[in-house]
Amino acid sequence: MSDDLLDEIEALGARLTDARTAIATRIIGQDRVVELSLAAMLSGGHALLLGLPGLGKTRLVETLATVMGLSGNRIQFTPDLMPSDILGSEVLETAPDGSRAFRYVEGPIFAQLLMADEINRASPRTQSALLQAMQEREVTVAGQTRKLPAPFHVLATQNPIEQEGTYPLPEAQLDRFLVKIDVDYPDRETERAIVLATTGGAEAEARAVFDPESMMAAQAVVRRMPVGDGVVDLILDLVRACRPDNPDAPDSVRKHVAWGPGPRAAQALMLLVRAQALLEGRLAPDQSDVTRLARPVLGHRMALSFAARAEGVMLENVIDEVAARVGRVEQAA
C-alpha cells in the first residue's frame, strides 16, 4: 500500500467517525443499520431497508442526506403512481409570441439520495422505471437519455408484514440493491432514550460533514483499498456455495434453495467488506467481514424452494450455516 493511499484512508476514516457522530445526534441506537447504510453509500450502491412503520427509516434517510451533503427527494410509492411521476415528463408550453415547444420537467428521481418509501406498493411498471436509473445512473424519457446527478443512491423502504395491495419486487430489481438491511425494534434503554430525545421542546439538528465531491472521492478510496487473496477466495467460495446447482454446495443448499446468488453478489461483497473495514478504522478487510455481511448481501439474492418454506426452513439459518462452513474450510487451508 502506498503512503498516499494510507494517508487518504486514515483521513477518510477520521471524517467518517465525525459523520457517524453527527448521525447519532438524530438516530439513537440502530448502529448496525447506520453502518450498513453508510457502507452501501461508500460502495456507490443502493440499499433496501426492511422494517415495520415507526422504526425511524425515513428519519435515517433524511439525516443521511444532510450529513453526507447530498440533495434528497422522497417518493411515496402507491398503486396509482405512474413512471412519469418518478422520471418526469415533457410538457407543451406556449411562448409569448405564440410559438409552442416541449419542455422537459424533471421528476423527483433527479436527486443524489432518493428515498423510495414503501417501494413494493407501486405497480411493476412503475417499479421498472427505477431499474435503469439504479443500474445505469440515467433515465430515458421521450427517446432522450438524461444523466442523473452524481453520486446517485436509492434507499428504499419496505414493510415486511403488510402485504395486501403490494407487488413483490422482481428478482432483477432486488439484485440491484447492494444490501438488504433489517431494521428491528430497539431495546428498552434505547427506546427510552428515543422517547426522551424526540418529545421535548426541540430536537437535535444534523450537520453536513461531506459534500458530493468528497463523497465521490471517498467512494474512489474504497475501491482502491487492498483486499487479500484469502478474503477474495472466501467471497467466491461463499457465493458459489449458495448455488444449488453447484455439486460442492452443502446439502442444506442443494436441498432447500431454489436459486442462488449471481456474480453481482460477489461484487457487492468485495465493495462492502472494504467499506466495513474503513468504517471500523482498519486499513484492509479480513475474513470476518465477509461472514458478517453474508446475510445482508445474500438474503435477497436467493430463495428457498416451496418444500423448504413448507417445512419452516429459514433462509437466514441456511446462509449462516454456509458462511460458518466455508469460513472453517478457509481457516483450515
From TrEMBL:
GO terms for molecular function: ATP binding; ATP hydrolysis activity. Residues 43-187 form the AAA+ ATPase domain. Keywords: ATP-binding, Nucleotide-binding. Belongs to the MoxR family. This is MoxR-like ATPase. It comes from Jannaschia helgolandensis.
